[in-house]
Amino acid sequence: MLKIQNVTYGYNNMHNVLENFSLSYEEPGIYGLLGKNGTGKSTLLYLVMGLLRPKQGEITFDGINTQKRAPETLQEMFIVPEEYNLPSILLPDYVKVLKPFYPNFDEQLMVKLLEMFEMKGVNGAELDENGIPKINLGALSMGQKKKIYMCVALAARTKLLVMDEPTNGLDIPGKSQFRKVVAQGMREDQLVIISTHQVRDVETLLDHVTIIEQNAVLLNEKMNMEEPVNLEELFIDALNRAQIAS
Question: Which one, of 188, 174, 116, lies nearest residue 146 by Cα?
Fold first, then answer.
C-alpha cells in the first residue's frame, strides 16, 4: 500500500531531518508511529501526503507517487494535523465544501461518530434536513474542534488516514471516546497511521507499531492482540537496544 523508499528531506541545506529513510506498510490496519522529538515523525507524515517534497527518494501509495498529488490519489488520502483551525461556518456547509473532493464521504457515519463523541447537540445545535448538527465551527474549543475534525476525517472514507498527535487537547473521556470512534469509523481496507507521544491513549488500538530513531527503523512489527502491550516499555527497550548496538 504505502512505500517510502530512500527518502531524504531537510528544511534547510545544513541539516536533513530524514536521510535515506525507508519504510513500507503492506496491509490495512492501525499503525502507531513512535519516536523521540525531532526524529521527523510529523515531517514524514507531510511527505507521505505530498505536502512536502523529498530532496531524494520516492513515496508511493497504491503504486502512485504522492508527490504528484494526482486527484485520484488525493481523494483517497486525509490528514489530521496536530494543530489546525476550522473556518467560522456551520458544519453542514463545511461538509458541502469537502464532499466533492471525497466521493466516498459518508454523512451518516459522521453523525454516528459525532454522537459517540457527545458532540451532536453541542452548544444547542439544531439538525439540518440530513440530520447534521448545525454546529458553528468557529465557536468551539480546541478539543471540540479535534473531535469534529476526526469525525470528518473518518467520514471521508479514504484508504489512507494519518493523524498527528490526535489525542492532544482531548479530556480523559474524550481519549476513551477517541479509541472507540476510530475502531468504529475506519473501513476494513483502510491504512491508519497515528503519530503520537501519548502512547497510553492508543496502545489498545494499534495493530502494528513502528519506532524510528535517527533515520533508522528500530521496530516495525505487528502487535499480538492476545497479550497486552506496554508501549512505553517497548519504546524505551527499543531505544536502549539501539544505543547498545551503536
Answer: 174
